[in-house]
Design a protein that fits this description.
alpha/beta, D-Amino Acid Oxidase, Chain A, domain 2, FAD/NAD(P)-binding domain, 9-stranded mixed sheet, 8-stranded mixed sheet, 14 helices, globular
């Protein structure tokens, strides 16, 4: 058996973040008819942040939150735990999609994370946050040049960024693949334990009076003659004044959401806890850099609170025909084996290290590569979906937009193109699968060609379809 496959042999198919003895108790499911002011559908980051922000604005608000499975299931409990000020999935995408608002989005993104962290302090939520910034590494000569251009641009704009040449980067983190690096240290970006963030938010909103029903599915909803919303759920009917959908990549009964986002499968692995000698061999004994390689199909990896390395992304990311979210996609050996192989290519000095966990799940992406908010039913139903993998921080902002669209303290943000711009829907199958597959193959080819974009990607750029990061 090849070494990278053997390293996975005893791994547990379970998200690392959820494999704890101190998992919070699951809230009871809905067992009767209920009334409320606002019904929130979805118990991930977006739904939790919406409940908390509204309770802080309006303590008397009567809120019910329902979750089909359990709080922290889905992308919110399966991600890499990278928290970013970015709201639009990278400067290039922000400048492509919202050229007149790029600076404003940067300011809003910084303020959003600043307020997020203040909330954690205020309520004593220990999400294991580390303010380590984000470090991008270049592994080909052409990407060194591209990354250097980013550095020069950021430096000219007054950002606190640090350039590492080959020797300097390898002095920070030891990998034979690293040719250069760019550390954005002057921001609030960093890493968290995403499940603990969810659990903390759950505790707080429950203390503030939000009624939480887990293991409760929304079956259907409709608007009644008195303009209230009637939601048929497993276990009972909820009548509310308004509904906020925080379902992200999962199927929604709202027609306007269905074709705006598609589910993308992402796969991750985590090592066993590293010894001090192993940490020193990599260089993570000095500073806990949160890393991503400067590719279109990038890997993201970081050190955890108990000295494990989590590793995800790259070419293992997949869209499956007809938006398949079934469990047949969850534990595909080839996906994890690819991740393991690429891990040991990056860190050959860790040969012999075993992986303790492997897991996967869906993220939601829109054609603009960032959150797609919306409102319908004459202002009584709103949503914020499609974070494309950067939702740990931006989900709080998405929740804010969703609340504002429902009339809760609306601000000038609602007039921004970030909110009002039409989101191009995904084409129907089989053209959707063909298009996504062509795009992924083109991105892989561009990475192999030093970032040079071929005709297909140039066409997507022309139509503003977001694949620029």
């Amino acid at each position: 058996m090849q070494a990278h496959i053997a390293a996975l042999k005893d791994s547990k198919h379970c998200p690392l973040w959820l494999d704890h003895d101190d998992l919070p108790a699951t809230s009871p499911s809905l067992q009767s008819n209920q009334d409320c002011e606002l019904l929130i559908v979805g118990g991930g980051f977006t739904g939790l942040w919406a409940a908390l922000q509204l309770k802080e604005q309006k303590p008397e608000a009567d809120i019910i939150l329902i979750e089909k499975t359990f709080i922290s299931d889905g992308a919110s409990g399966r991600n890499g735990g990278f928290i970013s000020e970015d709201l639009a999935h990278g400067e290039s995408n922000s400048e492509l999609q919202f050229p007149d608002e790029a600076q404003q989005l940067a300011e809003l993104g910084h303020q959003n994370v600043k307020e997020l962290l203040a909330t954690l302090d205020r309520y004593g939520i220990d999400a294991h946050y580390e303010n380590v910034g984000i470090t991008e590494v270049a592994t080909t000569p052409s990407f060194v040049e591209a990354l250097r251009d980013v550095y020069e641009k950021d430096k000219a704009e007054g950002k606190d960024v640090v350039w590492f040449d080959k020797e300097e980067m390898q002095a920070e983190i030891h990998s034979p693949t690293y040719l250069a690096g760019l550390w954005n240290r002057g921001c609030l970006d960093g890493v968290v334990d995403p499940a603990r963030l969810c659990w903390g938010l759950k505790r707080v909103i429950a203390e503030l009076g939000v009624r939480i029903y887990e293991q409760t599915s929304l079956i259907s909803f409709k608007q009644l003659k008195d303009k209230s919303m009637k939601s048929e759920c497993s276990g009972g009917i909820i009548t509310s004044e308004k509904i906020f959908f925080a379902t992200n990549g999962y199927q929604s009964p709202v027609a306007k959401i269905k074709n705006k986002v598609i589910p993308i499968w992402d796969y991750q692995i985590a090592t066993e806890p590293l010894t001090q000698e192993q940490l020193a061999a990599v260089g993570w004994d000095k500073f806990h850099h949160a890393l991503a390689n400067n590719f279109n199909m990038f890997h993201y990896y970081r050190l955890t609170h108990d000295n494990r390395i989590t590793w995800g992304g790259g070419g293992a990311v997949r869209y499956y025909f007809n938006s398949n979210t079934g469990q047949n996609c969850a534990d595909i050996p080839a996906r994890f084996e690819q991740l393991s192989k690429e891990f040991f290519e990056t860190f050959p000095q860790l040969a012999g290290v075993k992986f303790s966990h492997r897991w996967s799940g869906i993220i939601a992406t829109s054609t603009r590569f960032c959150v797609a908010p919306g409102v319908g039913y004459k202002g009584r139903v709103s949503w914020a979906v499609g974070y494309t993998g950067l939702g740990v921080g931006s989900s709080r902002f998405g929740a804010r937009i969703g609340l504002e669209l429902l009339g809760y303290q609306p601000s000038k943000v609602l007039k921004m193109k970030f909110v009002t711009k039409y989101v191009i829907p995904w084409v129907p199958e089989p053209f959707r699968w063909i298009g996504v597959t062509l795009t992924q193959n083109a991105l892989v080819k561009a990475d192999a060609n030093g970032g040079k974009r071929g005709p297909w990607l140039k066409m997507l750029d022309f139509f503003g379809l977001g694949f620029t990061c």
